[in-house]
Design brief:
308 residues, alpha/beta, Arginase, Chain A, 10 helices, 36% helix
């Protein structure tokens, strides 16, 4: 039976420090994401791009915060859109946009999971944990706050109420290599499952990933994958404003996606922080399309030679 997927754009860049992420959805479409998935036998529906209206500024005790009202508005519209996309399609893809959008997409998927009486699990592929509250962020860049919000941590009251917080024990973070002290304290407090690049160097990607997938399967959970471009090493994926050396390699990333595909557990996907303004002839957008194809069923023997 043909499975259905949707692609939905969230051209949001107010959570980041550098402009350009708003072009991410258009870049992924130009790179042929929809056609790639259709060639793999999926029924693909392009839901277009979301938009928010002009927002009145919101005050906050932390003077570093910027674009708080806009981020709140994006969370509200993305929560509704993600819930609807999950209801209507087997595997929705949410194209960003900066990582603040995950506050909305994960919230919508958590509501979808709750309606089915199932827990939501999150695989966070990122150089950063994005676990700041609105008070602990010193940069004021709100793409550093979604994890704190959707796990129901204190001091996110300026965001919409989180109706179905994700249990921190249902989250695995992989590829982490840049953590602020406040985030490190919260990780320890919550006992979160974190596999930084040192751990991946030692064990490879499969042992922690397979252990996590076993927990998802045992709990009959839904699995949301949130993929930040900076999870990848900037040598292969330059189109990101928050580059951190020493990220995942081409094969590590593909192996993760292939293993996720084999599991049959993934119910939704974020593709975030793609900044085409910083790319090299669409190189990173094409790589993201290829990685998504691996998640959707493409295997090594299916790949054509590509010239960048």
């Amino acid at each position: 039976m043909t499975r259905s997927c949707s692609i939905l754009g969230a051209p949001i860049q107010t959570g980041a420090s550098q402009p350009g992420c708003l072009m991410g959805p258009a870049s992924l479409r130009t790179a042929g994401l929809g056609a790639v998935l259709a060639d793999l036998g999926w029924q693909v529906e392009d839901l277009g791009d979301l938009a928010i209206s002009t927002q009145a500024p919101m005050a906050h005790p932390n003077p570093a915060l910027h674009d708080l009202a806009e981020t709140r508005a994006w969370i509200e519209i993305l929560e509704q859109a993600a819930f609807a996309a999950a209801r209507d399609h087997d595997l929705p893809i949410f194209m960003g946009g900066d990582h603040s959008m995950a506050a909305g997409t994960v919230a919508g998927m958590a509501r979808h999971a709750a309606m089915q009486g199932r827990p939501l699990f999150v695989l966070w592929l990122d150089a950063h944990p994005d676990l700041h509250s609105l008070s602990t962020t010193q940069s004021g860049n709100l793409h550093g706050t979604p994890m704190a919000y959707f796990t129901g941590q204190p001091d996110c009251d300026a965001y919409p109420a989180m109706a179905h917080p994700v249990d921190p024990k249902n989250i695995t973070l992989m590829g982490i290599r840049s953590v602020d002290p406040a985030e490190a304290d919260r990780i320890a407090e919550l006992g979160m499952d974190v596999h930084d690049m040192r751990a991946i160097d030692e064990t490879g990607v499969l042992p922690p990933l397979r252990a996590f997938l076993q927990r998802v399967r045992a709990a009959n959970g839904l699995l949301h994958v949130s993929f930040d471009v900076d999870f990848l090493d900037p040598e292969i994926a330059p189109a990101v404003g928050t580059t951190v050396p020493g990220g995942a390699t081409f094969r590590e990333a593909h192996l993760i996606m292939e293993e996720l595909s084999d599991s049959g557990l993934v119910s939704s996907l974020d593709l975030v922080e793609l900044n085409p303004f910083l790319d090299e002839r669409g190189r990173t957008a094409k790589l993201l399309c290829d990685l998504t194809a691996s998640l959707f069923g493409r295997r090594v023997l299916d790949r054509m030679t590509r010239s960048y």
